[in-house]
Design a protein that fits this description.
single chain, 289 residues, mainly alpha, two-stranded antiparallel ribbon
């Protein structure tokens, strides 16, 4: 009697390559429009292009899924990408709440680290009224923020499961690098770290993307749902990014964003610590099983 051979799933590289080709073509086209339009990232037209560009990963999914026939099984596609959850509603709701709090708490911790290193000075006393006003205004537009971050997360939630045959760690690492490099057309134009040389800015943001992307990936896989990652991504864009301007002033460093933002070195520190806690407590091991 022979024992049946178990075959591990393989990475569908043609689908991955097609998705990346379409996604990156779209984001570079958007970046070129801003560049040849004058390169003013603060203009209204650039803001509109940036919002449209967040849907280039979704475009990559739709075109690839159409070409490969995946779109003919929409229920399977929605389940694979986590739009339809495979876990219980209470678990998804709990992890979505965790996603809402994740980036703001990490951003506050990063500012504390930066303050201890002399890169940021908190206002004394803390402007609680301004902080409450900022939170109220950002939560008011939070649904729009989720609509925009869904454009990206739908694409990454399509990509990550296809990379998991490489192993959970490698899949998260590769998807994080892709996410960081994906932003390069705008990072090179000074979007994330004004004043930093372009190549260094891309490297810095890619490091941040690997770390934050691993946390989003954990939320996504632990919940069996895309929504915690969508909410966490929106909270990072709208709430976490607004803390430095409200709570204090940066030091005299040449690139303040690198010393005060979640995507700067203090953010790397606190995200690495949290990832270490998740690893030590076996949370990633549970996902791998």
């Amino acid at each position: 009697m022979t024992t049946p051979t178990l075959h591990r799933p393989a990475v569908p590289w043609p689908r991955v390559a097609a998705f990346l080709a379409i996604t990156f073509s779209g984001i570079w086209a958007a970046g070129a429009v801003v560049w040849f339009g004058g390169g003013d990232l603060h203009s209204d037209s650039a803001a509109a292009i940036l919002m449209i560009a967040m849907y280039t990963p979704t475009l990559g999914v739709l075109v690839t899924a159409t070409a490969t026939g995946e779109l003919r099984r929409p229920r399977d596609l929605l389940k694979e990408t986590g739009v339809r959850s495979s876990r219980s509603l209470p678990r998804v709701a709990g992890l979505t709440l965790a996603g809402l709090l994740l980036a703001p708490l990490l951003a506050l911790a990063a500012l504390a680290v930066s303050s201890a290193a002399g890169g940021f000075a908190f206002h004394e006393p803390l402007p609680l009224g301004s902080l409450a006003g900022m939170l109220a205004s950002q939560l008011l537009i939070f649904p729009l923020g989720m609509v925009l971050t869904f454009g990206e997360e739908f694409g990454w939630s399509y990509l990550l499961p296809k990379l998991l045959p490489l192993g959970l760690g490698r899949g998260l690492l590769i998807s994080g690098v892709i996410w960081g490099v994906f932003h390069a057309p705008f990072t090179l134009q000074g979007y994330h770290y004004p004043g930093m040389p372009g190549a260094l800015a891309v490297l810095a943001f890619t490091i941040a993307s690997v770390l934050f992307g691993a946390l989003l990936g954990w939320l996504r896989l632990a919940a069996g749902s895309i929504w915690p990652a969508v909410v966490a991504h929106a909270a990072a864009n709208l709430i976490a990014s607004a803390f430095p301007a409200v709570l204090g002033t940066p030091g005299s460093a040449a690139v303040p964003a690198f010393h005060t933002s979640l995507s700067g070195w203090p953010g790397w520190v606190v995200m690495a610590v949290l990832l270490g806690v998740l690893i030590v407590t076996g949370q990633f091991r549970k996902l791998a099983v």
